[in-house]
């Protein structure tokens, strides 16, 4: 994981929204046989700025770096919505999670 | 003949057709999508992307191919691997992906008509082979029925 957690955001009184991609929804993780993993994005509900990224499951150590770069450069979840992600990949979890989170607003 | 009316009809349920249908549904249009029953999800799910990548991944896993270099050929004997082993993996994942797409369309209130679309006039499409002889009318129709390979005479 990188950035904030729901606990730190709550204790700092920073509003946030959550976007989740379950590995069970991704074609690539079905191919790899991992249906338990997940990717969670935390972002600001008004500015949509990315606040935290949590990755669990196969190759989480690899895909976390995508979130690390966006977080470091102060990017927003629209980046994941608007960019093309290869299919089927685990990196695609970022797009699924961004759409999930933005749909909740 | 049953006639169903929509604001927007999409022919083809591959990636382009799905996104077009969902975008229209989110704009509160009445939407239907037409494709053959065995092709919901399009070439990507049934004959292209998903099967080919699953075959590759299944062979890596069943043979331990990726780690052979570390442990030496023949050290990882997992028995004979048959075409059936690989194709049962592929079939399971294709079925699962088809369900994901079907659920996504349903969740967005999109009607699915199964059959082959055939234009009767610019705003009416007959769905052939659905057993009911349905035709659908729409103000706008998106044709997203896929591509053919382009063969260049310069690269045989």
Describe the protein in words:
- The complex is a heterodimer of chains A (105) and B (156).
- With 105 residues, chain A is an alpha+beta fold.
- Chain A has helices at residues 6-11, 27-32, 60-72, 78-82, 93-103; strands at residues 2-3, 17-22, 38-43, 50-56.
- Chain A has one domain: Enolase-like, domain 1 (2-Layer Sandwich), CATH 3.30.390.
- Chain A is built from 5 helices and 4 strands; from the N terminus they run βαβαββααα.
- In chain A, strands 1-4-3-2 form a 4-stranded antiparallel beta sheet.
- In chain A, a hairpin with a 6-residue loop joins β3 and β4 (50-56).
- In chain A, 38% of the residues are buried.
- Chain B has a domain at 41-111.
- Chain B is an alpha/beta fold.
- The mean pLDDT of chain B is 89.
- Chain B is built from 5 helices and 6 strands.
- The A-B interface holds A 25, 27-28, 30-33, 87-88 and B 15, 44, 49-50, 53-54, 57-58, 61, 93, 96-97, 100.
Radius of gyration of chain A: 13 Å
Number of strands of chain A: 4
CATH homology-level superfamily of chain A = FAD/NAD-linked reductase, C-terminal dimerisation domain
Please give the CATH architecture of chain A: 2-Layer Sandwich
Assembly type: heterodimer
The biggest beta sheet of chain A is recorded as: 4 strands, antiparallel
Defining traits:
heterodimer; A: 105 residues; alpha+beta; Enolase-like, domain 1; four-stranded antiparallel sheet; 5 helices; 39% helix; globular; B: 156 residues; alpha/beta; six-stranded mixed sheet; 25% strand; elongated
Write the layout of secondary structure elements.
The complex is a heterodimer of chains A (105) and B (156).
Chain A: E1 2-3, H1 6-11, E2 17-22, H2 27-32, E3 38-43, E4 50-56, H3 60-72, H4 78-82, H5 93-103
Antiparallel strand pairs in A: 1-4, 2-3, 3-4
Chain B: E1 3-11, H1 15-26, E2 31-35, H2 42-46, H3 49-63, H4 68-71, H5 83-107, E3 111-114, E4 116-121, E5 124-128, E6 134-143
Parallel strand pairs in B: 1-2, 1-6, 2-3
Antiparallel strand pairs in B: 4-5, 5-6
Helix pairs in contact in B: 3-5
């Amino acid at each position: 994981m990188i950035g904030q957690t729901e606990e730190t955001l709550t204790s700092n009184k920073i509003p946030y929204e959550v976007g989740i991609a379950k590995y069970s929804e991704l074609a690539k993780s079905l191919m790899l046989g991992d249906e338990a993993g997940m990717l969670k994005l935390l972002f600001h509900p008004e500015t949509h700025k990315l606040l935290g990224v949590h990755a669990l499951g196969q190759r989480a150590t690899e895909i976390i770096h995508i979130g690390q770069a966006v977080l470091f450069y102060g990017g927003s979840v629209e980046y994941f919505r608007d960019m093309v992600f290869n299919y089927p990949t685990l990196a695609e979890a970022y797009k699924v999670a961004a759409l999930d989170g933005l749909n909740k607003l | 003949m049953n006639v169903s009316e929509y604001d927007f009809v999409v022919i083809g349920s591959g990636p382009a057709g799905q996104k077009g249908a969902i975008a229209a549904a989110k704009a509160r249009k009445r939407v239907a999508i037409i494709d053959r029953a065995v092709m919901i999800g399009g070439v990507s799910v049934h004959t292209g992307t998903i099967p080919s990548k699953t075959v590759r991944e299944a062979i890596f896993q069943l043979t331990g191919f990726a780690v052979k270099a570390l442990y030496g050929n023949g050290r990882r004997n997992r028995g004979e691997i048959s075409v059936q082993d690989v194709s049962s993996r592929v079939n399971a994942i294709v079925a699962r992906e088809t369900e994901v797409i079907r659920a996504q369309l349903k969740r967005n209130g999109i009607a699915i008509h199964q059959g082959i679309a055939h234009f009767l006039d610019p705003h009416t499409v007959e769905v052939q082979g659905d057993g009911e002889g349905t035709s659908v009318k729409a103000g706008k129709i998106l044709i997203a029925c896929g591509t053919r390979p382009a063969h260049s005479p310069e690269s045989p």
